Amino acid sequence: MRVGLFGGTFDPPHLGHLVTAVNVRHVLKLDIVVLMVANDPWQKHGTREVASAVDRLAMVEAAIKGVDGLVAGDDEISRGGPSFTADTLIAMGNRYVDAELFTIVGDDAAATFGTWQRAREIAKLSTLVVVDRPGSPLVPPSEFKWNRVEAPRLEVSSTDLRQRFVDGRPLDYLVASEVLSVISERGLYGAEKYSVEKLGAKKS
Ligand code: ATP
Ligand code: MG
């Protein structure tokens, strides 16, 4: 089995995450790609409020529902505490015995190699997959076995999406309508201010 680990805060999950996951799965012929929801994104401490892990998991589950080969991962949430990729790879190795593991990161995450905790363990347990746009290759440090997947980068970020809730710009198509439903039901990002219709989500 070939298993991809695509970790993130997913606050909220968006089109860019999903397009990346399905394209990497296709190019590298992975059986599944696990969108692993960070329990406690320590790299974001002190910078902003993060939606609860349970709410972010519910959004990821809604986003991948019915999509072949995408799985919502809750190992980091079940483990609790700060999330470290090396621990998650160990957990995934236990869950998917004998699987070949791939750690998938977008270009912005790949640019922060220097700050990664336990990079050597990550390099030992998995093949790194850097997803970046055509023509701007990012080269990881030499200890990594790595692969590069070119994908068009859709200029969407969770940061911009959260701002859209504040200033009322449209979210349609950037966020799956199933995710918008979860946001609306749970009143995330101040969404209780908006009607379900205004968010573009279909009522379930
Ligand atoms: P934030 O703006 O809050 O940092 P984000 O949109 O960057 O959120 P994260 O949850 O931080 O999303 O990112 C998870 C993973 O998804 C990272 O590996 C990141 O590089 C990748 N990623 C984020 N946005 C995109 C995008 N538009 N296209 C491709 N990959 C992306
Ligand atoms: Mg980010």
Topology:
Blueprint: E1 2-8, H1 15-27, E2 32-37, H2 53-64, E3 70-73, H3 75-79, H4 85-95, E4 100-106, H5 107-110, H6 119-125, E5 127-132, E6 146-150, H7 158-167, H8 177-186, H9 196-199
Parallel strand pairs: 1-2, 1-4, 2-3, 4-5, 5-6
Helix pairs in contact: 2-8, 4-6
Bound molecules: adenosine-5'-triphosphate (ATP) and magnesium ion.
Tell me what the structure shows.
The protein has 204 residues and is an alpha/beta fold. The protein folds into two domains: 2-155, HUPs (Rossmann fold), CATH 3.40.50; 157-204, no CATH class. 37% of the residues lie in helices and 17% in strands. The chain has nine helices and six strands. It has a six-stranded parallel sheet, with helices on both faces. Strand 2, helix 2 and strand 3 form a beta-alpha-beta unit. Helix 2 runs antiparallel to helix 8 (177-186) and helix 4 (85-95) packs parallel to helix 6. The longest helix is centred in the first third of the chain and has 13 residues, at 15-27. The chain is globular. The site of adenosine-5'-triphosphate has 17 residues, from helix 1, strand 4, helix 5 and helix 7.
In short:
With 204 residues, this protein is α/β, with parallel strands linked by helices. Helix content is 37%, strand content 17%. The chain has helices at residues 15-27, 53-64, 75-79, 85-95, 107-110, 119-125, 158-167, 177-186, 196-199; strands at residues 2-8, 32-37, 70-73, 100-106, 127-132, 146-150.
